[in-house]
Design a protein that fits this description.
551 residues; 22 helices; mainly alpha
Length: 551
């Protein structure tokens, strides 16, 4: 391990990438220190009070923290984009190995260990749900308001955002089991509970990076691009580690499950993805696409056996036999996978003592309204147009739009699943598009929902234009949420500023070749790091080149 770190560090020094490493870390440190004054502040029992630092949460102190917070985000985004520009130079992309970019991700992530909750107060809701379960109630039937008893107010109740105090949880039984376990371990200490959730999020990020690069290696694509999107990406670091969203657990389990399936460990892959769905039901969407991966592997194994078998089969008969086998493979894998998934989910529900109450609680998330989801954006536009003609109100239009697009969303996901079926790469591209459909047409969407896709999209052999578009959106998503958790979608000045950031990133990555102090031509072959031929010794660069600029 130590040798790997030293080799990766030497590689970054040889490539003159150490400034990116340290400036990005500086940005993460700025965010970490500023979080205690600008982030989602503790309502009670803040450790700043006994240290006489409570002034950081108000007035000029808070303003100073906000300045450092945004400076830190800009440093992270700028250095992530500059690293992407380095990778877009084909000659120099071949120099960087997966351990080297993995080291950047870890160094940038470590400062978040001392970060207070930022960009969201959801971590307090998670802990409150664990406290509810530990007290013997069901978080599927009551919200954190049950902690507000006459004569005794649990501090957790005061920390939960007022919008969610009366809302039941939409999360799965494994989420509740983990949160209850944290409450038991920490004896209901809020600071210790938040720290353990942070550790789980950081471990999840490590799992995401492992899964992302494993998927890339299985597909014959670049693990470096996979880690650039999944691990070094500021959107992932800020929202999954800094914001401590349970998307981190779900995405980690899903990506690891996909990686295991691509390594032909299909039953284990289904098991791990089902555990992800037991955190958040979104992971269930990955299971149907897993069928195509399994079928593709069975088909490849069948072709190998047919090639080596004695005798010749007429073409027509062989085609019929092949189609019959494919149908058999499909039903066998679908049925077997479904039975295994249901059994695992039932076992988790029984072990945690919960149930399937989260299915009904999913409707509670409908109270969130923002125009990042297409039904809400359409309702806003329709209400604005019809307001002068006595048309339906925004509430009526929103309800109708959500009902209609929930059907459209389901149909589109099915069509995407049926179309992207021929190869494992196609299946994962279909899964990415399916998640995009969910984000666009669901009743609500947040910037961190796109972590569902970012966990594996870098392994899908993207074109330059696709890389630029995704990077621009990620940069936009880093800026659109305010430090204390309010989304700036309805602050049109702030939304415009975030748009400028995204457009700038798209422009910068499209400038063409980028000049760096050290190029492939100037580095002797004997001095190139192990795996320099394609971001890893087992990845041939000639098989997964990036398209020419503008492709």
């Amino acid at each position: 391990m130590a040798n790997t770190v030293r080799t990766a560090y030497s590689e970054l020094r040889r490539l003159s990438l150490l400034p990116l490493l340290w400036w990005g870390m500086a940005g993460a440190l700025f965010i970490s220190f500023a979080s205690w004054g600008a982030g989602a502040k503790y309502a009670v029992n803040s450790w700043l009070v006994p240290l006489h630092l409570d002034w950081l949460r108000y007035g000029h102190g808070q303003l100073l923290c906000q300045v450092f917070f945004w400076l830190g985000i800009l440093l992270l985004v700028i250095n992530w984009v500059r690293l992407g520009a380095f990778l877009l130079d084909n000659d120099q992309r071949a120099l960087l190995s997966a351990p080297a970019i993995g080291l950047i991700a870890v160094v940038w992530m470590v400062p978040f260990l001392i970060t207070g909750p930022i960009l969201s107060r959801d971590v307090f809701s998670y802990l409150a749900q664990g406290a509810i379960q530990h007290a013997g109630s069901s978080a599927y039937q009551v919200g954190p308001n049950i902690l507000n008893e006459p004569g005794h107010v649990d501090p957790l109740y005061l920390e939960v955002s007022a919008d969610w105090r009366n809302t039941t949880t939409p999360y799965g039984p494994l989420h509740l089991g983990l949160m209850e376990l944290i409450i038991i371990i920490t004896h209901n200490n809020i600071h210790a509970g938040v720290f353990l959730v942070k550790l789980l999020c950081m471990l999840s990020m490590v799992g995401i990076m492992w899964g992302a690069q494993t998927i890339a290696r299985s597909l014959g694509t670049s693990p470096v691009w996979a880690i650039w999107f999944a691990g070094v990406n500021p959107l992932m670091l800020l929202h999954l580690v800094g914001g401590m969203h349970n998307e981190a657990f779900m995405v980690a389990l899903m990506v690891v499950g996909l990686a295991l399936s691509l390594r032909r460990q299909h039953l284990l892959g289904i098991t791990v993805i089902t555990l992800g769905a037991a955190i958040k039901a979104t992971a269930f969407v990955a299971l149907p696409f897993l069928i195509w991966i399994w079928v593709a592997h069975l088909r490849a194994a069948g072709k190998t056996q047919q090639t080596t078998a004695p005798g010749n089969i007429p073409d027509a008969a062989a085609a019929v036999e092949s189609r019959g086998k494919l149908v058999g493979y499909f039903f066998a894998t679908a049925a077997g996978g479904a039975v295994l998934s249901v059994a695992i989910f039932a076992a988790v529900s029984f072990t945690t003592g919960t149930g399937l109450g989260f299915l009904a609680a999913l409707q509670g998330s409908g109270k969130v309204i923002n125009w990042l989801a297409f039904p809400t954006a359409l309702a806003h536009f329709t209400a604005m147009v019809s307001s002068h003609s006595g048309g339906p109100s925004f509430t009526v239009t929103l309800g109708a739009a959500r009902s209609i697009f929930s059907i459209v969303m389901g149909l589109l996901v099915i069509l995407v699943w049926a179309h992207y079926r021929k190869t494992p790469l196609q299946a994962l591209r279909g899964l990415a598009i399916g998640f995009l459909v969910l984000c666009f047409f669901n009743s609500l969407a947040f910037p961190w929902y796109y972590s569902w896709i970012l966990g594996f999209v870098g392994a899908l052999a993207l074109s330059r234009r696709a890389i630029r578009i995704i990077a621009a959106f990620c940069a936009w998503g880093c800026v659109i949420v305010l430090p204390y958790g309010i989304i700036g979608l309805y602050n049109y000045f702030w939304a415009s500023a975030a748009l400028v950031v995204g457009v700038t990133v798209y422009w910068f990555l499209g400038r063409g070749e980028h000049t760096w102090p050290l190029t492939a031509a100037t580095l002797p072959i004997s001095e190139r790091p192990a795996g320099a031929t394609a971001c890893g010794a087992e990845d041939a660069p000639s098989t997964t080149p990036l398209p020419a600029p503008g492709a």
